[in-house]
Specification:
This protein is mainly α. The chain has a domain of 37 residues. It contains four helices and no strands. The longest helix is centred in the N-terminal third of the chain and has 15 residues. The radius of gyration is 13 Å and the shape is globular.
């Protein structure tokens, strides 16, 4: 059941936000995945950011 929920979330996001998804993918290839996530999440005050800065 948990896997179904995850797959449903991923597919829902892919169906609703293709332009944003492609832009994020391009940015991740260009600057790296961590930097792309940082740039995406930082404006919203991602409180877990410190976990990934190692």
């Amino acid at each position: 059941m948990a896997n179904s929920a995850v797959i449903g979330t991923v597919l829902d996001g892919a169906a609703r936000h293709p332009r944003e998804g492609y832009a994020f993918q391009t940015r991740a290839v260009t600057v790296g995945f961590r930097e792309a996530v940082r740039g995406r999440d930082e404006p919203y005050g991602d409180f877990k950011r410190a976990q990934f800065e190692r």
